[in-house]
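[Automated response] Your request has been received and processed.

Submitted sequence:
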Amino acid sequence: MTDKDQRLTDTKPNAATGEPEKNEAGHHIGSEDNTVASLPLAGQVASTLRDMIVQDKLKPGMRIRERQLSEQLNVSRTPLREAIRILVSEKLVESLPNRGAIVADPDPRRVQELLQVLGALEALGGQLAAENATDDEISEIRALHFEMLAAFHRKDKLTYFKLNQAIHKGIIAASGNDVLVDTHAQLNARLYRIRYISNQRNELWHEAVEEHEKIVAALEARDSDLIKDLLTRHLGRTWVKVQETESARTAAD
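Generated structure:
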């Protein structure tokens, strides 16, 4: 491990603020569940690259330049290449002959199809979680919801998004169905950026918060039919928000 790799691995929360420390490029090394510091180095780098993708610091269709990123993130080429391979496996990045790695840019029809399938998986997960979740699992999901609300009020969209993702993953995990958990993880990874940009317009952001409150309340009530319906509609609205957000961006350009 090189000296600059070690500096990335040593990243830990700031004792005064509780926020993750930044590397020398100014990027937080963090993830949805705040455990990135315990991940292998390639996993830490992959998490940082995901953040850069969802925030359009690495835009769809953009070539990933290893030398530039290696210097920017202060890591050597080996963990960076391993991280890129992780993102290729998640289909957030594509590896093309004679072009190298580029940020994936799925067409709108494919995005809609992916969201339809993900919505069905989350609806099933919610139904099973209402039936199978332990009280502790439900309490943890409620706690994540409170943390997400705090991020919403701070207008901290990246932290909000990661807590949002943790809630959805928590519901799926509470289903008790390992096949569902694995399948959902694979598909959700492909939609990581899409789910982030669905909350980018401030006038639409509150809608997602209100929907989450209803979802968590239905889980607490163990109302399997209601949570199934809520999650189906929640993912359906994600597609609508993505279309509206992209239209607004095009108009602004």
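Summary generated for your ticket: The CA atoms of residues 63 and 102 lie 4 Å apart. The first strand starts at residue 93 and ends at 96.
If you did not submit this request, please reply to this message.
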